[in-house]
Design goal:
The protein is an alpha/beta fold. The chain has 11 helices and 18 strands. Strand 15, helix 9 and strand 16 form a beta-alpha-beta unit. Helix 4 packs across helix 5 and helix 4 packs across helix 10.
């Protein structure tokens, strides 16, 4: 099969590799669509270093089951499926408590965060466990289905962890693909004033099209002043979905008493400071969110199937697997939202 293999940082090679075969309790999926996540880009460019070579990236796939292994009982060849990238044992304390993304025996297909990394979906076929598959609703396109994982992360961060309430004034810092999903989810959940902060004119323009009530350019260092002109009492919830440490520092600066704030976007190990006494008296609540769970995936499918969130609106570019290098170039430009790979 054809696959995009990362052989070293900044050395992504299109090559023929052996197609996978399913083991017991496993399935092989013919990939139809796969989202190109910023963490994939960071691995390819060496921005994140927790990569073991060779490595096939791509952890937001949907496709068609092409083969099943012994013991698979809920899926069969020809089924259209969504793939959860994070595998889990189902038996450890974390899994029993519903925090499957904490699993002590976890694996991931094409992603990061655990030691056991399986080949991902920037390829024609991908192997995974049956427990990681969801049936794709017929009304969903493969592109929409492939965005289940990022939408599930947005739901988990904004709704489950930060417990956004209808009428909350919400600030989203960074409105690339995941930030737009957080923003669209907040809009659907009844946000009052919804402010998108981004340095990119393109991103701010897209945010207004997709539900932001206001946009702010933080480039001149006056973001806090502008946010408080729009929301004099300050935000109820701030979601950092940008990644750079400067976004986290801005989030800290925007807090008022009772603000909920979610460290969602940053994945690199960088530091920021908190005034202990001020943080104590502000009595806000800090949350974070990474990865996904079966519950979050199911909720994302529900949101899409019922038409609550139209995830295809954030797709700006589509590329064939043969054009993966053009996709990488596009990921490095500010004038893009979600990039899709269609093997």
């Amino acid at each position: 099969m054809l696959a995009a293999v990362l052989e070293d940082f900044d050395r992504l090679v299109l090559k023929d590799v052996p197609a996978p075969a399913p083991g017991e309790g496993e399935a092989v999926v013919r990939i139809k669509s796969c989202g190109f996540c910023a963490t994939d880009y960071k691995a390819i460019k060496g921005i994140r270093r927790n990569v073991t070579f060779p490595f096939i990236p791509g952890h937001e796939p949907a496709g068609v089951v092409s083969a099943v292994g012994k013991g698979v009982s809920h899926f069969r060849e020809g089924d259209e499926v969504i793939c959860q990238p994070s595998g889990f044992c189902g038996f450890c304390r974390h899994c029993r408590e519903g925090n499957n993304h904490y699993c002590k025996h976890a694996f991931t297909t094409g992603g990061d965060g655990v030691e056991d990394v399986w080949p991902g979906a920037f390829a024609e076929y991908m192997r995974t466990r049956e427990a990681c598959l969801l049936h794709k609703p017929q009304k969903l396109s493969f592109d929409a289905a492939a965005l289940t994982e990022p939408l599930s992360g947005a739901w988990k961060g904004v709704i489950r962890n930060s417990q956004m309430q209808p009428g909350d004034d919400v600030v989203v810092i960074g409105v690339g693909g995941i930030g737009l999903l957080c923003m669209m989810l907040a809009r659907a959940a009844g946000a009052g004033r919804l402010i998108a902060i981004d340095t990119s004119p393109y991103a701010r323009s897209e945010a207004m099209k997709l539900g932001a009530t206001h946009v702010v350019d933080p480039s001149d260092g006056q973001a806090k002043k502008r946010v408080y002109e729009i929301i004099p009492d300050g935000p109820d919830l701030i979601v950092e979905a940008a990644g750079p440490i400067q976004a986290v520092k801005l989030m800290v600066d925007l807090r008022r008493r009772g603000t909920k704030w979610n460290i969602f976007g940053i994945t690199t190990h960088e530091t920021f400071e908190l005034d202990g006494g001020l943080t104590h008296f502000l009595e806000g609540r800090m949350d974070a969110s990474f990865g996904t769970t079966p519950l979050a995936m199911a909720m994302a499918v529900r949101l899409m199937e019922r038409g609550t969130i139209d995830v295809e609106r954030i797709i700006s570019h589509r590329f064939a697997l043969n054009d993966i290098h053009k996709a990488v170039e596009t990921m490095g430009r500010p004038e893009r939202n979600k990039v899709m790979i269609n093997p």
